[in-house]
Amino acid sequence: MKGRSQLPGDNGPPHPASAAKTELDDRDRIIDAALACIARQGWRRLSLADIAGEAGLPILQLYRMYQSKTAVLCGFFRRIDETVLAQPLDSAPDERPRDRVFDLLMRRFDALTPHRAAIERLSRELPTDPLAALAAGAGLLRSMRWMLEAAGIPGEGLAGIVAVKLTAAAYMATMRTWLRDESPDLAPTMAALDRRLRAIERWYGGGGRAADRGAEAAASD
Q: Looking at the domain assignment, is residue 218 inside a domain?
């Protein structure tokens, strides 16, 4: 049987590596487009057609990658996680777990800074969308568990679950400060985060009060 004639410019399927890079680029375009739309028009009025148009992609391409605008939002959260986790922590062996968590969470705020306008709209409008808010809440807990794991703090078990939830609460409370923080070095944000992490550090294991007592006892010997 005679094979299919090759169309002009038809060089067969793309190389797997090239196809994967194109998909990753399209995912980033979609996420960036969604954030631009949210900053401009808010979450409630956002549609999938708006995102596709802003990204300059056919809506079929958006359909293939994200099933809902909430899925796009979760993709953004995952991208922030990857940005934070991409660089290993440069910490001393005797550094408190609290300080490692502080460094990782400040990395998150640094990564979020270009998207502050969209985050501010989301903070006001997401609570009015219960399903999206539930998905975002689950994503936040997943992110915080990875932050703790990267800091060397187990996120599993009863103590780990409590540590994850308390860290998420501290992070969200600090975000209210961050949204108003126009300083170049984010000093108010750092102060607020440090204060809240100090209040929960006993759940981080070696960084808590027991370590303080041990250090004081060692210093008095």
A: no
- Our count of domains for the chain comes to 1
Rounded Cα–Cα distance for residues 194 and 200 (Å): 10
CA Rg value for the chain? 22
Lookup: tokens for 17: 């590596």
| Host domain of residue 122 | 17-206
One-letter amino acid at 104 equals L
Q: Does residue 175 belong to any structural domain of this protein?
A: yes
pLDDT digits (tens, 9 = 90+) for 21-61: 677 789 999 999 999 999 999 999 999 999 999 999 999 99
Contacts 24+ apart (CB under 8 A), 210-216: 211/96
Q: CATH no. for residue 34?
A: 1.10.357.10
Q: What residue ranges of the chain have pLDDT lower than 70?
A: 1-21, 206-221
Q: What is the pLDDT of residue 205?
A: 84
Residues 6+ apart with CB under 8 A from 101: 147, 148, 151, 153, 167, 197, 204
Number of neighbours of residue 90 by Cβ within 10 angstroms? 7
The pLDDT, as a whole number, for residue 17 is: 55
Select from 73, 28, 23 the least CA-distant residue to 48: 73
**Which whole-number Å values give the CA distances from 154 to 163, 174, 191, 198, in the listed order?**
9, 22, 25, 18
What is the per-residue pLDDT for 214? 36
